[in-house]
Amino acid sequence: MHVLAQIPTEKRPRAIFLASQSHRGYVTDEFGAALTVFSTDDYQVVQTIALGDPKLVRPMGIASPDGGSSSQDHRGCRKASLGRGVEPRW
To answer: I want to staple 49 with a disulfide (CB 3.0 to 4.6 A). Which of 32, 35, 72, 73 is the partner?
Structure first.
């Protein structure tokens, strides 16, 4: 697999969603209680959205209402990696 980019995230990224129409990607950060938003054009983080107290909020999944691709993994790290032609890996 050829890694296209590594997107820095908060603690323990769990799921990734690539929006097909908005050119945005979204990563749920379980231990960081956040949603990392990045551009799928240049893979730069656009925004990190705090979702609440990390002791109470632990986002693990993500929905894909516009038909984009999504993936989940259960290993902890601080970056999500995107590869060409394969599912996102952590």
So the answer is: 35
Q: How far apart are CA 9 and CA 82, in angstroms?
A: 13
Task: Quote the tokens at residue 82.
Answer: 């995107």
Provide the CB-side half-sphere exposure for 12 (13 A, CA): 13
Total domains in the fold of the chain: 1
Q: Cβ-count burial of 73 within 10 angstroms (0-12 exposed, 13-18 middle, 19+ buried)?
A: middle
Check if the beta carbon of residue 68 is closer than 8 Å to that of residue 74: no
Q: In which residue are the tokens 């730069």 written?
A: 44
In a domain? residue 89: no
pTM: 0.73
Expressed as residue numbers, the domain containing 15 is 3-83
39 strand-pairing partners: 24
CA gap 18, 40 in Å, rounded: 8
- The tens digit of pLDDT for each residue in 6-34 reads 888 888 888 888 887 788 989 999 899 99
